[in-house]
Amino acid sequence: MLIVSWNVAGLKPALQKIHTDYANDTTANARSSSKPSPFATYLALHGDISILCLQEHKIPLASLSSRSEPHQCSSVTGYESFWSCNTNAKSRGFNGVVTYAKVGMVRSADAFPLKDEELDSQGRCVMTNHGSWVLFNVYVPNGGMTPEGLVNKMRFLNALRRAMKRQRQEGMRVVLVGDMNAKIDKRDLYWRHRVLNIDDVLEQIRAIRRDDADCDIPPWKVDIERHWDTISSVCQTVEAIPCMTTNPTTKQTFNKFRARVKLPDGKNVMLGSNEDSAEEALESYSFDERFFVDPENGASTLIRKKNVLGIDSLAELMAKIANVKWDEKILRAIAESDEAGLNPDSPSYLWMKMLIEEDGMVDVFRHFYSEAEARQFTNKRYTNEGGRIDFTFVDKPLLEFVDKGDNQTLRCGKESHDNPLGEEAALMAATANGLFEPGTYAGGGIAIPTKRALDSQFGPPHTGMIYTPPSYSDHIAISLFMKSSFDELTGTLTLDWKDSATRKSQPHKKQRSIASFLCASAPKQSDSSGVFTSLNDKKRLMPSDNAATKKKTLASYFGNSNMSNIGPRSASSHSRTKSASTHGKKIPQNNILNHFKK
Question: Is-above-0.90 flag for pTM?
């Protein structure tokens, strides 16, 4: 069984590219007697995916319930789909998660598993029941730079943890996949983006000198001790300055913000880069303590100690304020030091730790690739930057069923490397050995990849990462490969369509088209997912040996065979008739829609 999780950052554009790239692919689905859709072909090329979990599909519920979704993505040959859409008035049209599972693999589903109306309406979680285990597909809120964002994120995470505990209490094992928008290990973060606790560094130096210890102090720590008071004082003057940027190709202008400080000599210095908001511009240069008030219990918790900042920001401040320039060798030494890493007081980091240490879940990727430094982030893929925020967790008893696969690397292209888990190999994997080219900052988007580059994403099933093309999404996919014994544990299941939660998770199966009324005498037939395939298919299902049936007109449904002969003028006068007999009922003849509503 192969489970794949992928933040597509918009299913419609991703599907459009898949259909463009694989519409003419000759790969056939052995389980289908007809040619599969390009999307089904794409899933087969990835090693015949059993369960696909997508985040940020951004498809409105109305599109699914009216069957107007892009490329009929709710009905993929051989799969059932289960949707959670964002219906929240504040953010409708964003978020959204969907789980595709092969027919016979799901007993029930729930698009409202958190049991919190506000959170469930955001379309961030769908749970599928697979007999003896459940799968949570999630898109965790980012949190942003505001207290409100962090409150929403922690509400979601706490509700998710309770939902998983409820399933365990019912005897189920839990698998959790998706975009967690959090990190658990310093190796999940690009080394220049790790944070350093300045007070810890200063205390170490003071202790060494106080005890007159005979040990060498790294030069970078001496630099911090010598200049930190000046840097701290200058950063008290920081302010966000409005600025305007222009796209050199389209000439479109954008209102941005950038941080500025005043040096002791009165000179102004710009810091950082252009950001969308003043809060984002100031984020990296504010060193005060930060607290978080838990909305559930009202407790105030320290979430970042004083004088904790990113290594990149520290290097910039040392260069622009203290005129001390560190080279890459020194910066790497700082990043690998014990004092550098993730913010240990971050609420989402502490939540992830509880997931592992208290709830008994396992970070599967880190279990198999303990030394790997995972990276992915928009155009930063080409400079090997970014971080790992997409995870697969399993309850510890399920770990024995996880198969690493034959591949012993991170799917690092076709080239061999001295260290298959090292930076060079990771860069080659992320860029298909250089075949994926970055977009220019002058506009024009990401370069169109070759077929050879696109096909580099495919390979044997494994547990790890799948380097999907950057033109499809700014996230790559992650995979969880289960042994055949796990398939046997799951067995063959029948979807419980009588379950109300399951029905709500499949809004595409609720809609009845006007054809279903006009063809009421036709036998009910459907494809493997239980959904009528098309209006033409329904026409072909109608009886063909009855001439009267073939010639039946719309007028015949209203009990007046002369309606077809009514011209524009007579039709107008006829509409003034108060009522006529139709199937034994009196209805207004100028309101056909009301008849259908009845």
Answer: no
- Mean of the per-residue pLDDT values of the chain: 82
Amino acid type, 175: V
How many helices (DSSP H) and strands (DSSP E) are in the chain? 21, 22
Residue in the block written with tokens 């299902």: 541
Q: What is the mean pLDDT of residues 15-26?
A: 88
The CA R_g of the chain, rounded to the nearest whole Å, is 29
What is the spatial distance between Cα 67 and Cα 266, in angstroms, rounded to a whole number?
63
Report pLDDT digits (tens) over 142-175. Answer: 987 677 889 999 999 999 999 999 999 999 999 9
Q: Of 349, 309, 342, 27, which Cα lies nearest the Cα of 157? A: 349
Structural domains in the chain, CATH included, are 2-189+345-504 (3.60.10.10), 192-340 (no CATH), 511-597 (no CATH)
Long-range pairs, 327-334, Cβ under 8 A, ≥24: 330/219, 330/220, 331/191, 331/192, 332/191, 333/218, 333/220, 334/196, 334/220
CB atoms within 10 A of CB 134: 25
590 annotated as a binding-site residue = no
DSSP string, 542-560: S-SS-HHHHT--GGGGGT-
- Answer yes or no: is 437 a known binding residue: no
Please, are residues 326 and 132 in contact by the beta-carbon 8 Å criterion? no
Structure token digits, residue 538: 């329904």
Q: Residue 7 annotated as binding?
A: yes
Residue type, 515: A
| pLDDT single digits (tens) 270-300 | 999 999 999 899 989 989 999 988 777 788 8
User: Which one, of 138, 141, 125, lies nearest residue 91 by Cα?
Assistant: 141
pLDDT in tens, 492-528: 999 998 999 999 999 999 755 454 445 444 444 344 3
- Ordered DSSP codes for 9-53: S-HHHHHHHHHHHHTT-----TT-SSPPPHHHHHHHHTT--SEEE
62-71, 132-141, 222-231: least confidently modelled range: 62-71
Q: Is 560 annotated as a binding residue?
A: no
pLDDT in tens, 541-557: 334 444 444 444 444 44
**How far is 172 from 131, CA to CA, in rounded Å?**
8
Burial class (CB in 10 A: 0-12, 13-18, 19+), 593: exposed
Tokens of 206: 């003071």
Reply yes or no on whether the pLDDT at 233 is more than 80: yes
Say what the alpha-carbon torsion angle 66, 69, 72, 73 is, to the nearest 10 degrees.
-120
DSSP per position, 487-530: HHHH------TT-HHHHHT-GGGT---HHHHHTTTSPP---TTS
Q: Express as a percent the part of the chain with pLDDT over 70.
A: 78
